[in-house]
Amino acid sequence: MTEDNRKKKFPHKHLLGIEGLEPPSINYLINLSQQFVDELKLSSNKLSFLKNKTCINLFFENSTRTRTSFELAGKKLGADILNISLGSSSIKKGETLIDTAMTLNAMQPNIIVVRHNDAGAVKLLSEKVNCSVINAGDGPHEHPTQALLDALTILRRKKTISGLKVAICGDILHSRVARSNIHLLNTLGAEVRVIAPATLIPNHIENMGVKIFYNMKMGLKEVDIIIMLRLQLERMSGSYVPSIREYFRFYGLDREKLKFAKSDALILHPGPMNRGVEIDSELADDIDRSAIFEQVQMGVAVRMACLKALLE
User: Fold this and answer.
1) Sheet of strand 211-213, all strands in order from the earlier edge strand to the far edge
2) How does strand 266-268 pair with strand 225-228?
3) For the range 233-241, what are the long-range contacts, defined as Cβ-Cβ under 8 Å and sequence gap of 24 or more?
4) Which residues contact 106 (CB under 8 A, 6 or more apart)?
5) Which of 20, 78, 191, 267 is the most core-located residue (most Cβ within 10 A)?
6) What is the pTM of this model?
7) Residue 119 CB burial class (10 angstroms; 0-12, 13-18, ≥19)
8) Which tens digits make up the pLDDT trace of 138-195?
9) What's the confidence (pLDDT) of residue 44?
């Protein structure tokens, strides 16, 4: 692929969200991710696409899957990786985000992967550095690479996204995963539903092109894909649900509720899972119905694709 053709496929300096990306850009990242899935199966050798490139992983929130998969992705591509967590950063000493950005920019990295607890913080940082920036999750705003790996998982099982009925269930209010998935799935032609108690449905979310359901069984009727979300208790102040037990009774996915979906409906979950809260443990481990651990496997390939697309 020539440089001009690559720029036409993904003509962006940063990956700050799914919102605003056109289908060709999304499909380019998904197709490149698929190539890396196949590459990783064939060989464990490091590639040299990003040799002599420097990637900084800057995480202001705790993370296991996202940070480690970005680290593995960068190393698989031959990049030099520097991990910076909040506990070891000068933010603890009172340094502002902009000062941190200026400091990192002086190190002349090629890309910075950022997770931050405030919506919009990653975009602000991207405006203060010369290199590319990937949003690894900013508050309740977006988590683009999670949506991409969810899409890749769906495509590998269902062969298409267009025309599928997808239900996103759980704590929609605080979920950046839900927002990125809604943008991506709508852009690629799926019908998206959100299912949650009224206290966990954002105001005006219908403007994003989704159907709202407050009853789990009605919302799951004839859906092809079910994306379960955890209760983000760390982002809640006050009471959003009566109790964990009541929440599971009405909104936790179990065999009884699953019967209302299509017989071959696929279950996804971005993790971490709260077994017995939003999903029955036995169902989460059912490899015929659940693709939860497959999602984790897709994570490295998707992040390799995003790094390569921006740094190639």
Assistant:
1) 211-213, 191-195, 165-169, 225-228, 266-268
2) parallel
3) 235/140, 235/174, 236/174, 240/171, 240/173, 240/197, 240/199, 240/200, 241/197, 241/199, 241/200
4) none
5) 267
6) 0.93
7) middle
8) 999 999 999 999 999 999 999 999 999 999 999 999 999 999 999 999 999 999 999 9
9) 80
Which residue in the block uniquely carries the two structure tokens 């894909």?
A: 225
- Amino acid identity, residue 302? V
Calpha distance 238→226 (Å, rounded): 28
As given in the structure block, the two tokens for residue 204 are 């005006």
Note the pLDDT tens digit of each residue in 239-254.
677 788 899 999 999 9
